[in-house]
């Protein structure tokens, strides 16, 4: 349901800033869900590897956001 709402919102947003915000919110929501999935893995090595992938992806996304803000792109 949330994915559908976010997807519809992305298609209907008018300003680039609003679209960027909605995309970031959708990404962050998906990352939180993936982190929760990782936390439920029974094997400690699998759980740690999964959490590491999520953390790496979030760090990369945050770096891209910083670059965009520095360039004036939201």
Descriptive report:
- There is one protein chain.
- The protein has helices spanning 2-12, 16-39, 44-70.
- The chain is 84% helix and 0% strand.
- Helix 2 packs antiparallel against helix 3.
- By secondary structure, it is mostly helical.
- It starts with a helix and ends with a helix.
- The model has no long low-confidence stretch (mean pLDDT 82).
- The chain has three helices and no strands.
End-to-end separation: 27 Å
The helix fraction, in percent, is over 70%
Class per helix and strand makeup: mainly alpha
Radius of gyration: 15 Å
Largest pleated sheet: none
Q: Count helical runs.
A: 3
Mean pLDDT: 82
Strand content: under 5%
- Strand elements, count: 0
Order of helices and strands: HHH
Morphology: elongated
Low-confidence spans: none
